[in-house]
Write a structure and sequence with these properties.
Length: about 270
Amino acid sequence: MELALQLAGLEEIPEDSGILIEGDNIKKVFTGVDMDTAEIMLAKQLGADLVIAHHPMTGSPRVNLHKVMLGQIDRMVEAGVPINKAQKAIREKMDEVERGLHVTNYDKAYSAARLLGIAFMNIHTPADLIAQSTVQKHIDKSLADNPKATIKDLTDCLLELPEYKKTLAGPVVRVGSEKDYCGRVFVTMAGGTGGGIDVYKAYFEAGVGTLVVMHAKEDVIKAVKEQNIGNILVAGHMASDSIGMNGILNELEARGVEVVRMAGVIDPK
C-alpha cells in the first residue's frame, strides 16, 4: 500500500482502498480488477500469499467509495471549472452513489478471504490516479505538435499503449466522430466513479474539447450529444484499470514479488 501511495502521490490511504486482512512474507500475489469469492478461492488454491483487488468489492472501501468523489473537484478545477461550480456539479452524483452502495453486501469477499486465511487488500484511487496521469502524459506528448488532431489521431495514440492494444474492449468514440477535431483533450479516470451529467457539462463549458474516460453511462452520452460542444472517447474500462494497476504491479515484480494477473488485469508484456 505504501508503494501504491508513493506512485500516486498520496500521503494517506483513500476511503475506497484498504488493507482488509494483513499479511507478511508476501512472495506470490494474485491480482484482478474484480476479486470476489471465486477468485479468492482460486488464488488460495494456487498458492497466493496475497490477493489484491482493484475495485472496492468489500468492507469499508466499498461503503465509503462515494467519499473519494470529492477528489473530482480538484481535477475539474485543473480543467478550468470554478471550484464552486465543480462542487455543485458532483454533489448529486455523490449522493446517488452513496445510496446505491449502502444497500450492497459489503461482507462477501472479505469473509471469504478471512475464512481461507489469506491476506487481502484493494487499491482503487491510487491506481486510477496513476492511470489518469499516465494516459494524460502520453496524449500530451503524442499530440503536442498536432493542433488539429482528430479523434482518429487520439485513438491511434491510445493504441500505442500495450493495455489498449491488447484489450478486447478498446477505445471507442461515444460522442463525436473520428474526423472531428479533438480540441483540448482532458483525461478524467479517478475519483471513485463517473461524475454524471453535470460534471461532463461543466468540463465542456470550461473549454475542454474531448474527454477521455474509462466508461460513460447512457444518460451522460445522451446529454452531451444534446449539448453538442464536446466529444467523449471511452478508452476502455478494464484496459484503463490495468494501466493503473500495472504501474504498481511492475514495481512489485521489480522487487522480486511474483505477480499473477487475472480477472481483468491485462499483462502488458
